[in-house]
Specification:
21 strands, 4 helices, 4-stranded antiparallel β-sheet, 374 residues, Tachylectin-2, Chain A, single chain, mainly beta, 5-stranded mixed β-sheet
Length: 374
């Protein structure tokens, strides 16, 4: 079946026809499946750039780095190679064999630089490090220069925490709780138990995204505290560090794979649950501002269809990675981009792009369609 898909796609390419379909292999202009996962799309000049994890056919760790593709129409994608390569230096943060996930690139108009943030796990340490990493480039295609990796907001309390909340968090002790998901454990978690336990070394950062608001301020949104809580953190003006201002969303809610956009004066945050490679029902939050308050709403996904008939209850078989627009013109749709993971052969994980519609009350809704929206 895989060979047949490649042959059919090769014929379409030679005929000048592009037929990217959700739930199928997506080919670049050279007839190779687009190997860019967990990433994002930006527009710079007259081109779009798609960044993502360059995954191996076998295995799990990062052997090449972060890939980048370019396009003028979101349909015909040229492989521009590896934007940020792994290091061959033993002990380097991004040594070959580390884990580089969820890369996101922003263009900083003030500095004229392209800044990449990504989730980093150090070689041989599983998911223990839970860091965010920074890299920078003068060009959208790289090469990006690795700057550093770190945990988030060490020794800093959320800006909206009261003295009473700080004192309550300091009374918790994560080492005491060997059994999770009890009412008592959840109460301690919501008091800030994992926030406090990671205070000195910094908060964990795993699945992550970035967002630039209308005023140019940029934010890092990440799954933290053992993937239990989302953190929203403000970035410095050059996008290369944190200002120290942050807060928490849904403590103990177990959300990952965050995607965010703004519409109708509201902020919309779409996440997944934590079920490994298996798809699950998406969650959605509405924020009155980037700092909240955040209200959880039902999943925006509705209807049947989907990859291998996964319905909206399983996010059509996918997990979100980013939300972008083709352009800023009125009527240009927001596109929810996601991965359909193939853990046996990660390089052949599939892509899913779906337009986001809106109900009469302004609430986002996402329905299955086989054709990719352009």
């Amino acid at each position: 079946m895989r060979k047949m898909l490649f042959l059919v796609t090769a014929w379409l390419l030679s005929a000048g026809v592009f037929a990217q379909q959700n739930g199928e292999l997506w080919m670049d202009v050279d007839g190779k499946h687009i190997n860019a996962h967990g990433g994002n799309v930006i527009k710079y000049g007259d081109k779009y750039y798609w960044y993502g994890e360059n995954r191996p056919y076998r295995g799990f760790t990062t052997e090449a780095g972060v890939g980048v593709y370019s396009s003028t129409d979101l349909q015909h994608w040229k492989d521009e190679g590896i934007a940020l390569a792994v290091s061959e230096e033993p002990g380097h943060d991004i040594e070959r064999g580390c884990i580089m996930e969820r890369p996101k690139v922003l263009y900083n108009a003030k500095t004229g630089k392209f800044v990449m943030l990504f989730h980093l796990e150090l070689k041989g340490r599983g998911y223990e490090a839970a860091r965010v990493a920074f890299a920078i480039s003068d060009s959208p295609t790289g090469p990006f220069r690795f700057i550093r990796s770190t945990r988030v907001n060490a020794n800093v309390w959320p800006f909206d925490y009261t003295k009473k909340q700080v004192e309550a968090a300091k009374q918790t002790d994560a080492s005491k709780w060997k059994k999770w998901w009890t009412p008592e454990w959840m109460a301690e978690t919501q008091k800030g138990m994992y926030l406090w336990s990671d205070m000195a070394g910094g908060q964990m950062s795993r699945d992550m995204t970035v967002y630039v608001d209308d005023d140019g301020k940029a934010y890092h949104i990440t799954s933290s505290q053992e993937n239990l809580t989302l953190l929203v953190s403000e970035l410095t003006d050059d996008y290369l560090d944190f200002t120290g201002k942050y807060n928490m969303v849904a403590p103990g809610g177990q959300n990952e794979a965050p995607c965010i956009f703004k519409h109708g004066g509201k902020y919309w945050l779409i996440c997944s649950g934590c079920t490994g490679w298996e798809p699950n029902e998406a969650r959605m939050f509405r924020g009155e501002s980037i700092w909240g308050p955040w209200t959880q709403l039902p999943s925006p996904f509705e209807g049947e269809g989907g990859y291998r008939d996964f319905s909206a209850k399983k996010t059509f078989g996918a997990q979100g990675t980013y939300i972008f627009r083709k352009n800023e013109e009125a009527g240009s749709p927001y596109i929810f981009m996601a991965d359909i993971w193939n853990p046996r052969h990660l390089s052949e994980s599939l892509h899913l792009w779906l337009p986001i519609g809106f109900k009469t009350d302004g609430t986002p809704v996402i329905r299955w369609q086989p054709a990719v929206p352009y």
